[in-house]
């Protein structure tokens, strides 16, 4: 494993009276894609939200580039260079695509200050965003909204991107565009922590993997090793990746 950019050590999270995370431990290597897998309700989304400070760490620590995040508010965490694409996409439906992108670009005060070279790079993966640049985001299709959510996260270089189930409900052609975009980000040494239920996408993208069950990490290792071991998949996930070929 290369040097970790993110480390969770004994992380517990309570939401009201409910104890959701029970001592989560794993590290995210810099410049790689780490898959966070597990059955529904295992705690994957709560883990991402805890990293972002949307839920507070009740015990343990989250460290990013060696600095603890647990006492920081969500905007402060974002300013460390972490972007988050939630499962519900988090776009502003009443604003145009352009306005959504401008809000995500911290270095631009108006559209003329957006990095046009980077925009062209993003449009190469998601051409629909160019076509609907002046449309309200709420009028986009589900796939187009997901494109916008990812585009907002990568409109400026980030050190780490947390992404929650980006392929959910998308057509295979759009999923392939996402895979291409994420592979290009990986080539640029952007670190990605990705929750995903599409196991072929996980296999195509993942370098390392952490598998969760009942609020705990029950397995860590190379994604390739998990993808090649049907018995391990059955034990950890209750299914075989081979069935999704």
What's the CATH class label of the largest domain?
Alpha Beta
Cα-to-Cα separation, first versus last residue: 28 Å
Radius of gyration: 18 Å
Strand adjacency order, main sheet: 6-7-8-3-9-10
Care to describe what's here?
- By secondary structure, the protein is an alpha/beta fold.
- The chain folds into 2 domains: 1-81 and 162-245, 3-Layer(aba) Sandwich (Rossmann fold), CATH 3.40.50; 87-157, no CATH class.
- It has helices spanning 44-51, 74-78, 97-104, 116-125, 127-131, 142-153, 172-187, 199-205, 223-227, 230-237, and strands at 4-15, 18-29, 33-38, 57-64, 67-68, 82-85, 160-164, 191-195, 208-213, 216-222.
- The strands form 2 sheets. A 6-stranded mixed β-sheet has the order 6-7-8-3-9-10, sandwiched between helices.
- Helix 3 (97-104) packs parallel to helix 6 (142-153).
- The longest helix is centred in the last third of the chain and has 16 residues, at 172-187.
- It is globular, with a radius of gyration of 18 Å.
- The protein starts with a strand and ends in an 8-residue tail after the last helix.
- The relative contact order is 0.18.
- Residues 6-239 form the ABC transporter domain.
- Pfam families: ABC_tran.
- This is ABC transporter ATP-binding protein.
- Keywords: Amino-acid transport, ATP-binding, Cell membrane, Membrane, Nucleotide-binding, Transport.
Brief overview:
The chain has 10 helices and 10 strands.
List keywords for this structure.
alpha/beta; Rossmann fold; 34% helix; 10 strands; four-stranded antiparallel beta sheet; 245 residues; 2 domains; six-stranded mixed beta sheet
């Amino acid at each position: 494993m290369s040097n970790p950019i993110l480390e969770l050590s004994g992380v517990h999270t309570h939401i009201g009276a409910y104890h959701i995370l029970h001592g989560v431990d794993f590290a995210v290597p810099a410049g790689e894609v780490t898959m966070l897998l597990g059955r529904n309700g295992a705690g994957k989304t709560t883990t991402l939200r805890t990293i972002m400070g949307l839920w507070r760490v009740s015990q343990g620590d989250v460290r990013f580039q060696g600095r603890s995040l647990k006492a920081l508010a969500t905007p402060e965490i974002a300013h460390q260079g972490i972007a988050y694409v939630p499962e519900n996409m988090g776009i502003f439906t009443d604003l145009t695509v352009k306005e959504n992108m401008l809000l995500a670009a911290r270095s631009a005060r108006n559209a003329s200050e957006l990095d046009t070279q980077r925009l062209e790079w993003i449009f190469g993966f998601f051409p629909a965003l160019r076509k609907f640049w002046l449309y309200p985001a709420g009028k986009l299709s589900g796939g187009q909204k997901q494109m916008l959510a990812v585009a907002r996260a990568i409109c400026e270089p980030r050190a780490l991107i947390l992404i929650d189930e980006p392929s959910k409900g998308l057509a295979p052609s759009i999923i392939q565009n996402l895979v291409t975009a994420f592979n290009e980000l990986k080539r640029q040494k952007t670190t990605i922590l990705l929750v995903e239920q599409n196991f072929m996408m996980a296999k195509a993208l993942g370098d390392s993997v952490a598998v969760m069950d009942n609020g705990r990490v029950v397995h860590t290792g190379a994604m390739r090793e998990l993808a090649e071991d049907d018995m391990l998949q059955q034990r950890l996930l209750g299914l075989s990746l081979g069935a999704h070929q």
